[in-house]
Q: What sequence folds into this?
């Protein structure tokens, strides 16, 4: 997404020269990363903004890496003085000649306050009053501009404007009101408000009172794009380079799933929440096939883990105060040819799950667990009872093997998937997927 | 290092806020420096961070507003930006006044760097901890990663009622990750730690290694719980995590559900006392001890300025800023179970006729206060007749939150604190009649 103003004004050639002594030996990596973040956060309750907060943050992170040693320096501000401070500290830490001290200079004209937040307040007011008048939502509009300078490489700029809406609202069920969770994450675009309205309308549809989720092993269809959450946990995380010893490490090139399954990680999809034009090391990203025709294919790498083939453009940071890590972005699962009806018939009896709220993966154990807030029971190929919250859990490899070789043609974006935490660093992610049928999944009812 | 003009910028912003919102504003400045050593067998990363943050809260057009920025100039722009957004009316809180006999010195106002100790590199613990972990786990677990961070935080808080206070804190904390393998089974566990200088002279690597070893290796046992119900003996770390999960009940608008009736009051109190950590909370209210649960009854609530205004009760000094980026919220600061009649942990173990000892959590504690339910997944050891029997790889304790405290029948004298992420402490606890899955 191209925004109209830039806030990180740098003399990139000059900064590159400051960094050159830190990249003079073979195998050395060095870069300066600057971020300017603007965020408006609104806490809504029943049609009113009860709390509002505006954040304006600038920061610079400089990193030098050589073999098994890494130095990282963070300084506040995004002007030349902050860059000089970070590079000076880095050069001193790496034992290189000091960068001379020079008086600070300003860093350009500041833009006028953006009107987007005000426009979103008006839009949300109408949407909430019509579809979810009783609610507790937190809305965030975040604009980031990131710039990376590294000697010998073209400098890179990435600008994003993201919206997030999370919380609970009161919806009608056939036996009275009930509280339901809702999450929606999307890049801000002309169609976002319409998409949000449609998602909230669907979430507010009347439902029967749920019964408890059945425990034990069940066949499950993951529908409405929520299979992207599963593949994010069991493929994207284990295939992040630098991760520690997942069972998939030993299976590169092996068939782990039916040939109908194609899963990629594609940061270039700027229509998805996890997309970007350049990663946080300045690399232009490429799509990486995680599973191609059911065979484990690529890995997600950054500059430090790219080896001879180089980074795939997945070096990501939560912010300027953190060094980059190889991270997933948008999980994209290719569609098949089955219709939703065929999927239900093929399932015959089991669970139909359309959303997950949170999940985790234990890479060493090769296991995962995902929490679903509701599900539907499928009997004789037709949707029946509403079911309450529960978990699906299991081994990554067994779950991949139990995917049926039939994938629906209907591919949906999972807007409920928005933020992913690893080692305390939270980055935007998302995905899209067709409906996927998995046999014998362990299901447990619970909070 | 804090820029030399930080004090002047604070004064200028204070004037700007008084012009914008006469008598109804608060200004906060934080500066922090830290050194972090992050080690794995393959990489050593040293990170130096200098953070500066400014935040303001004020009442304008009848609404309370909050802004945060990394410089005074950005904060001024944020003030204008926030003022343009319509919000629901809310009366400003009663801003605290300057405590008697305290006047901020010019030096403190400028937040000079403190003693050099906080800028020293964090201790090299990887080798020591790796060896201790290997010994404690009989070679089954290895240290996969260790992050240790040392630093200092300086804060200054001013408001329209004339408050102008400053405080500093140093810290040494970290996160240890261990992975364990037994045959085809593997497990990874993470243990956060925080060195409490008021309790320990230095980081206790052996105690940390034992916690890591249990958390990493006990889940490798393939035995489920042998009992569907029984006594539940909780390691201080597990009990502290349970207390942390109950924390939302201590600050909500409604009081927690009354504990179920029982034969005798629980032999524990729940208290919060951060007086030894910092003289003020994040809103400049003096820190004080508050007892939240005693004699089997809820006796207090955690209040920040806004919740105190709504409830009509006085603020308790629990306006916590998790970061300069977020407005203060009523939250625990140093929350702990306190034994009213402590006994040695071995005595509690001897009282277990048939039950489970929970050594470490295997998933975050889940507490649903609306439905009055809890689910705690843990790993540990089965106990019969006061003697340890066998490892239990995974078990889940479930029940009603309102019954949990009433069924607590014993607390030991081994109170320990954990960073979860606020400080939470507990001794070993014994709970009767628990359901296990």
A:
């Amino acid at each position: 997404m191209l925004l109209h103003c830039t806030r990180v004004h740098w003399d990139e050639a000059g900064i590159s020269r400051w960094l050159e002594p830190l990249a003079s030996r073979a195998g050395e990596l060095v870069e300066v990363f600057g971020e300017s973040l603007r965020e408006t956060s609104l806490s809504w309750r029943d049609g009113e903004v009860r709390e509002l907060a505006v954040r304006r943050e600038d920061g610079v992170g400089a990193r030098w890496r050589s073999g098994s040693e890494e130095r990282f320096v963070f300084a506040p501000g995004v002007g030349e003085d902050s860059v000089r401070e970070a590079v000076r500290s880095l050069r001193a830490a790496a034992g290189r000649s000091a960068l001379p001290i020079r008086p600070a200079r300003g860093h350009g004209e500041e833009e006028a306050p953006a009107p987007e937040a005000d426009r979103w307040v008006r839009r949300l007011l109408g949407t909430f009053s019509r579809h979810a008048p009783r609610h507790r939502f937190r809305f965030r509009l975040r604009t980031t501009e990131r710039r990376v300078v590294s000697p010998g490489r073209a400098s890179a700029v990435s600008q994003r404007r993201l919206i997030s809406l999370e919380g609970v609202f009161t919806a009608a069920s056939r036996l009275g009101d009930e509280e339901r969770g809702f999450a929606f994450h999307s890049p801000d675009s002309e169609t976002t408000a319409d998409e949000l309205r449609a998602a909230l309308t669907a979430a507010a549809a009347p439902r029967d009172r749920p019964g408890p989720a059945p425990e034990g092993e069940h066949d499950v269809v993951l529908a409405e794009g929520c299979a992207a959450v599963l593949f994010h946990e069991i493929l994207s995380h284990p295939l992040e380079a630098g991760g520690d010893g997942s069972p998939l490490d030993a299976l590169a090139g092996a068939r782990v799933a039916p040939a109908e399954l194609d899963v990629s990680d594609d940061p270039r999809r700027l229509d998805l929440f996890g997309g970007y034009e350049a990663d946080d090391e300045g690399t232009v990203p490429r799509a990486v096939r995680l599973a191609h025709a059911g065979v484990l294919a690529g890995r997600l790498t950054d500059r430090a883990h790219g080896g001879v083939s180089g980074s795939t453009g997945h070096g990501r940071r939560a912010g300027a105060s953190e060094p980059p890590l190889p991270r997933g972005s948008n999980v994209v699962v290719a569609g098949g040819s089955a219709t939703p009806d065929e999927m239900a018939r093929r399932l015959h009896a089991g669970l139909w799950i359309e959303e997950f709220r949170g999940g985790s993966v234990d890479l060493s154990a090769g296991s995962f667990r995902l929490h679903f807030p509701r599900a539907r029971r499928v009997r004789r190929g037709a949707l029946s009872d509403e079911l309450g919250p529960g978990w699906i859990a299991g081994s990554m490899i067994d779950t991949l093997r139990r995917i049926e070789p039939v994938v629906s043609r209907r591919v949906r974006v999972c807007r409920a998937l928005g933020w992913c935490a690893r080692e305390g660093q939270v980055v935007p992610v998302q995905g899209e997927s067709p409906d996927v049928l998995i046999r014998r999944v362990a299901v447990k009812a619970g909070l | 290092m804090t820029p030399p003009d930080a004090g002047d910028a604070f004064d200028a912003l204070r004037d700007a806020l008084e012009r914008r919102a006469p008598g109804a504003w608060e200004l906060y400045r934080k500066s922090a420096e830290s050194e972090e050593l992050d080690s794995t067998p393959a990489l050593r990363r040293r990170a130096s961070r200098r953070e500066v943050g400014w935040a303001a809260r004020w009442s304008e057009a009848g609404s309370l507003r909050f802004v945060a920025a990394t410089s005074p100039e950005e904060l001024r722009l944020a003030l204008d930006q926030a003022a343009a957004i319509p919000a629901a009316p809310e009366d400003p809180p009663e801003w605290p006044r300057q405590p008697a006999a305290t006047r901020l010195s010019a030096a403190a106002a400028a937040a000079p760097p403190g003693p050099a100790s906080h800028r020293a590199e964090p201790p090299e613990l990887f080798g020591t901890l790796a060896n201790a972990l290997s010994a404690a786990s009989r070679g089954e677990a290895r240290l996969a990663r260790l992050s240790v961070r040392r630093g200092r935080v300086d804060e200054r808080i001013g408001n329209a009622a004339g408050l102008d206070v400053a405080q500093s804190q140093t810290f040494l904390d970290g996160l240890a990750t261990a992975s364990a393998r037994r045959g085809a089974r593997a497990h990874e566990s993470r243990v956060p730690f925080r060195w409490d200088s008021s309790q320990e002279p230095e980081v206790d690597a052996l105690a940390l290694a034992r916690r890591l070893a249990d958390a990493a290796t006990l889940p490798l046992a393939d035995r489920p719980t042998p009992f569907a119900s029984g006594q539940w003996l909780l390691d201080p770390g597990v009990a502290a995590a349970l207390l942390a999960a109950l924390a939302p009940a201590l600050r909500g608008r409604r009081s927690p559900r009354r504990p179920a009736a029982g034969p005798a009051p629980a032999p524990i109190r729940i208290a919060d006392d951060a007086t030894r950590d910092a003289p003020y909370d994040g809103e400049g209210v003096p820190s004080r001890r508050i007892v939240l649960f005693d004699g089997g009854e809820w006796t207090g609530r955690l209040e920040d300025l806004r919740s105190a205004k709504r409830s009509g009760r006085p603020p308790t000094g629990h306006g916590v800023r998790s970061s300069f980026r977020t407005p203060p919220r009523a939250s625990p600061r140093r929350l702990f179970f306190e034994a009213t009649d402590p006994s040695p942990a071995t005595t509690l173990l001897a009282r277990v006729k048939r039950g489970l000892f929970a050594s470490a959590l295997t998933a975050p504690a889940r507490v649903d206060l609306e439905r009055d339910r809890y689910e705690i997944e843990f790993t540990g050891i089965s106990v019969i007749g006061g003697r340890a029997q066998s490892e239990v790889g995974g078990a889940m304790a479930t029940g009603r939150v309102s019954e949990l405290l009433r069924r607590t029948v014993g607390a030991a004298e081994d109170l320990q604190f954990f960073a979860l992420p606020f400080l939470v402490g507990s001794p070993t606890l014994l709970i009767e009649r628990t359901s296990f899955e």
User: Anything to note?
Assistant: DSSP finds seven helices and 23 strands in chain A. The longest helix of chain A spans residues 116-131. Residues 1-5, 103-109 of chain A have pLDDT under 50 and may be disordered. Chain A touches chain B through 48 residues (CB under 8 Å).
